[in-house]
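S.,

As promised, the NAP run. Input:
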Amino acid sequence: MTILLASRLDAAERLQWLTLLRALLPHETIVDERPADAATSVDIALVANPPPGALQGLGGLRLIQSLWAGVERLLADPTLPPDVPLARMVDPAMSEAMAQTALWAVLSLQRDCFDYAAQQRRAQWQPWPQRRADEIAVVVLGQGQMGMAVRRRLEANGYRVLGWSTREGRWPDLLGDADVVVNLLPLTPATQGLLDARAFAAMRRGAGLVNLARGAHVVDADLLAALDGGQLRHAVLDVFHTEPLPPEHRYWSHPRVTVLPHVAAQTDPRSAAAIVAAQVRALRAGAPLQHLVDRARGY
Ligand code: NAP
Ligand code: GLV
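Predicted complex:
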């Protein structure tokens, strides 16, 4: 049987994955192009943001393993083979990267670092009152692998952290407790556009937004209005409706927006290949698979 790596990765990245996986799984056939007999020979697909239709016609599939944590694009592909277990990437190294990014963003908001960077460009000497970490309340949306890692890291650094997940109500009232809101929700029909004018109005005046999940959680026009009107002081955005962010987009030049190119927590093949290999061995041994997606819930 064959393992197919279906991705939009560039040639160097594909080679890195193939080299690592072939070393970890020396008895497996692992390819990054569909073989002629793919319809019957491919039983495992490793997917990294593949083009729609990439898995169509693979009649022998027994496992789809995403190399990304978020699987909303896969689930939106009407040709995704139904009834095949779909697993998402969960790697402690990714959670660590996410915790670092969130800590940097919250610390930078607390200590006015984005304002000081802007002031430097204007040669403006303007100190702001110094706030302690325990004076900053952070609401973390999503209490899964990423949200919990962020929550623990922020708490360890002295912030007051409130989490929110499907098990809790209070939307959007809980946002009123926040100096900073960090979004780590999966993108589903229930969470798309959740960060809208109503949510921004519920936040404390001058609060910060850190979106490290998906661009479609945010209604861009509402966020820009909230920033322009001063309801929000600053937004750190790693993810966007369209990626790469188009050059003409207002976020690029907005003085209250910091843009990152979807790098909050990248999959690192050096650790993630071992996680994929363990999943392949589990499938071959008939053992339980890890981190399966509930297709009905969308995450
Ligand atoms: P996860 O472990 O599945 O956790 C998802 C969390 O969101 C759970 O706490 C879940 O609640 C909650 N949730 C789901 N739907 C909800 C809703 N409608 N209302 C309130 N809470 C809801 O996911 P994860 O691994 O933490 O990843 C989260 C997302 O981060 C991914 O889907 C991806 O979009 C994003 N991400 C971004 C990057 C990046 O580099 N920017 C990297 C990795 C991941 P329950 O616990 O009650 O189910
Ligand atoms: C990155 O955004 C991921 O979902 O892994």
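The CA atoms of residues 126 and 236 lie 22 Å apart. The chain has a mean pLDDT of 97.

- D.
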